[in-house]
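In keeping with the milestone schedule agreed at the kick-off meeting, the structural modelling team has produced records for the first pair of proteins. Each record is given below as a sequence line and a structure-token line. The laboratory manager (R.T.) confirmed that both were archived under the project's standard naming scheme.
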Amino acid sequence: MDFGFTTAAYVVAAVLFILSLGGLSGQESAKRAIWYGIAGMTLAVLATLFGPGVGLWLLSLILIAGGGVIGVIVAKRVQMTEMPQLVAAMHSLVGLAAVFVGYNAHFEIGRVAQAFAEAGTLFPRPAVEAEAAAVAESFRGFAAIVAHKTQAEINVLRLELFLGVFIGAITFTGSVVAYGKLAGKVTSAATKLPGGHLLNAAAAIGSALCLVWFFGSGGFFPLFLMTLLSLFIGYHLIMGIGGADMPVVVSMLNSYSGWAAAAIGFSLSNDLLIVVGALVGSSGAILSYIMCKAMNRNFVSVILGGFGGSQGPAQEMEGEMVATDADAVASALDEADSVIIVPGYGMAVAQAQNAVSELTRKLRGKGKEVRFAIHPVAGRLPGHMNVLLAEAKVPYDIVLEMEEINDDFPDTDVVIIIGSNDIVNPAAQDDPNSPIAGMPVLEVWKAKDVFVCKRGQGTGYSGIENPLFFKDNTRMLYGDAKASIEGLLSRISS
């Protein structure tokens, strides 16, 4: 097959990826959008495999088969509660791939340059010297592309691979740390080494100096040194971010992985990789910006890892947590006319979405108004709660975003909170020293009665105390969320 067919296939694949991204913005179209993405990726892989200059068929087929088997195993084993960790792990692989491709490009440039030197001609002037043209035609694949470039183009290629390795290395270690925080294997608290942001700045300046060195010498050592520095930047950036802000971290790393892929696409002269990388990078950046607005964070501060830490001593908690039981909650629901359910990560952990869906169906069957309030960063991944509720067949029209429902809490009889903490924390409005100060939250405390389904009295993943639990109109329903909701189902009158 020729370049024309490959380019045409890449254009069709890019269109499918754009349709996929557009469809994922709505719950009704999300399933169709996923199939667009699958079709686009299948076409892209086939077009690459059958494109010009491709060899090593046996190795390619073995790697594709191996990756497919691993993908099936992961898909069967990973629960919805573990999706944020899986996304972070996937980002780390994209970053690592960018590093390896960048190193390979560097070695290929060196190999072609050595061949020209041995032929006694200048590298790479095939249009001027017959000897150079003969050397250029002896290469295949990426080396052939390199051999036909001018010196100015080679310099641009070196810049592209340098940036690809830099962004990829940051993405790799940052994603590994994010995975550790999300999986509970690394402390969720914001942790910085002595020197804080000065260390990050020094590493960034060192990387810039390595770029100058790399252009001057073309050697391997400045590229390797820059890789070590960027690996440290990725580690230290994400370690300095607290657990409350991890949803933003996931989308930010998604953006980083996209830009790394785009940079490597330029190095490989692969138009589709450039387009897809730009789509992922820009969409991740836009999502990060939207989430920063939802959390009242500064976007630049997010990119630099300067958020998530405590600003001072938190306010003292007044009152006490008052426990209740399923009978009292069921009685309140029987008497209520309007109910708002606020799902959080606790619902995902307990896999309580189906029980919540059945509770919703039963309450609506009795003529009660039941709606769901979704905060932009509920769970540990954007859209996490929407996916769980859609999986449990909760009607889309009663699942509302924060700005659509926040003004309705004063007129609501009962609010049921299932495993949420920070997104319903009044300290965001009342305590200027809180790590989440200024973050828009669901104002659930304005409802008549608030019931919180919670496993215990701990502060939760982010480690932030919640004054809501101590308010006079709040009662705590302790226990596993699924068991608690199923207990309510058996007590609500038909």
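The second protein of the pair:
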Amino acid sequence: MSPTNPEKVIRFCPKCGNPEFIYQTDNSFLCTQCKFHLYVNSAAAVAALIVNDKGEILLTRRAVEPQKGMLDLPGGFVDVMETVETALGREIKEELNLEIEESKYFMSYPNEYVFGGISVFTIDLAYICAIKSFNKIDAKDDISSFEFYRPEEIPFNDIGGTSMKAILKAFIKYIQV
């Protein structure tokens, strides 16, 4: 078990502060004092599969930890009370200054995202996205740059996330059929 797993990191009940906040076998914690029950669930995240007119796939470089400098698919976390579709459009606008014209669900893949010394488990939802125009594309927010790759030239060893590698490999098979 990773030292960043919530079982290894979370020590106190967030409701009453009791240090006897016991990890349970159902992926939850139970406070022995106030009986608060906290489940460790997956957080929703979105990823955009964007292809230009040349058939190249858009990848971004992470500007921040975790995995700073590694390649990634553009996207990010779904905010509280936000739809997945809204998050997808917001993230692509924030990171690349692009507007999605159309999106279609492709697949999901689980991931472990280590942030601040704790594992945040995500379910990454990938969408195939058509972009209105690439004219104003610009690297912003938490990405340092963007790069287009022909599917057969993607440097998979430079991609940080396990889920992003799996999604990209499935997408390449899908577009080559």
